[in-house]
Amino acid sequence: MALALSPRRRALLTPVLPVVAVVALLALPVSPGGEGGAGPADALSALVVAYCAVRLLRARRRPLTRTAALVLALPVPGLALAAMNAVSPGAGLTGLGRYLQIFVLVPAAVVLLVRNRPDLRLLAWSFVALALCQGGIGVHQYLTGTGASYQGENIRAVGTFGASDVMGMATVVSFGVVCAAGLALGRGPVRVRLTATACAVALLLPLAVSFSRGAWIATAVTLTVQLVLAGVRRALRTGAAVVAVCVVLVGGFGAGTAMLQERIDSITQVTDAPDQSVIDRYTMWAAATDMWREHPLTGVGLKGFPEYRDGHASLALSSGSDTEGAGAAYRKQPLLSPHNMYLLVLGEQGLIGLLCLAGGWLALLVCALRGLWRARAAGGRGLDCALVACGLLIWQLVDFAYADIGGPSTVLTAVCFGMAGWWGLSGADETDADPSTAAPSGLGVSPGEVALR
């Protein structure tokens, strides 16, 4: 005879816990000199998808509305067409699996496993905890000179991701800042909002010493949008406080201030006096655009950019970027992508692929923003969830202008799309009910799933 669980214990066994475990696994160190491919978190994300499929088979009910299914599956036609046009069957299958994992399967699993707003808040706090962990390691690397090499000094904060994935820690910390800001700007208890504010402020330091210009820009844009969406008056007050904190933090760096100032100034010098990394990026952007001009509808196929790069890039492109430090020896890392997700999709998948993939992202953003307006109209209930979901999606869409998918932290992108999808497709219509009233994990259909039927 099965033991009966109390409502409170059933609430603790939320089906979203496997997704939290995916986030937690990114705190594990990456082997020095690794290629930054699939890791333990990616493997667990596949198990999460399988777990979600088993729950659906047991429930024997249609879990998604037609609108939700259409939005989540919109990338599939473009991906399938690009896979058929790949340079080899192996490359096509590998690329198709990776894209489906990040933009279709894992987001859909997150949408189905999140039951209610407390579940979404749990995911948001797991992002903050991971960011604090990675950020703490990054600050230690900066202070002790054990980070990745930057201008001849091993001071670049990379966390456990290593010198081969310098964007990993910056991405994780940025997500943590966005989640903490959303939780702080909501209508939750004062203790929760103060804790979230303290976490957001603390994470600004590791974000600064990551020396990632793309992460800085995306975070600044997202925080500005979050503040405006939370209320103009609050935006002005909070913005003034954030500027003051940033001045204090930057002023406390001492010798590091000059490097930070130089890095910040380089953002405005991308056209006048660009460094080699910017030149490489412009060259690869031009190469991706040239590939699209030759194959405007279908592109060169998934995983095709490295194969076609040399035939479309100018002589200004360097042989690769230098990586060193954080426990890894010096090596020349090849430039295998244009570091712009939109141009990567355009070059490899053509206009059809870009319309399918970016169309799905735009639909998610519209649904999430509509849900935010409904939350504000309802007196601010669930505003923190709305700001977190919209913020993560906006950050990712802005960052895609400077980066693309790749590395262990990419699985977080899938979780972010899933969180935004849940809020936009069902979360805005949920109530902040006691979690103990939710259906037990693995037994029947949860309230979130019922709302999506």
Description of the molecule:
- With 453 residues, the protein is mainly α.
- It has one domain.
- 66% of the residues lie in helices and 4% in strands.
- It is built from 18 helices and four strands.
- Helix 3 (40-59) crosses helix 6 (89-113) and helix 8 (166-184) packs antiparallel against helix 16 (383-399).
- It is globular and about 60 Å long.
- The protein starts with 6 loop residues before the first helix and ends with a helix.
- The model is unreliable at 433-453 (pLDDT under 50).
How big a fraction of the residues is strand?
A: under 5%
Cα-to-Cα separation, first versus last residue: 32 Å
Strand order of the largest sheet: 1-2
Structural class: mainly alpha
If you average the pLDDT, what whole number results? 83
Helix content: 55-70%
Provide a concise account of the structure shown.
This protein is mostly helical and 453 residues long. It has helices at residues 7-12, 17-25, 40-59, 66-73, 75-84, 89-113, 117-144, 166-184, 190-208, 213-230, 232-251, 256-267, 276-294, 305-312, 341-377, 383-399, 410-425, 447-452, and strands at residues 148-150, 153-156, 321-325, 328-333.
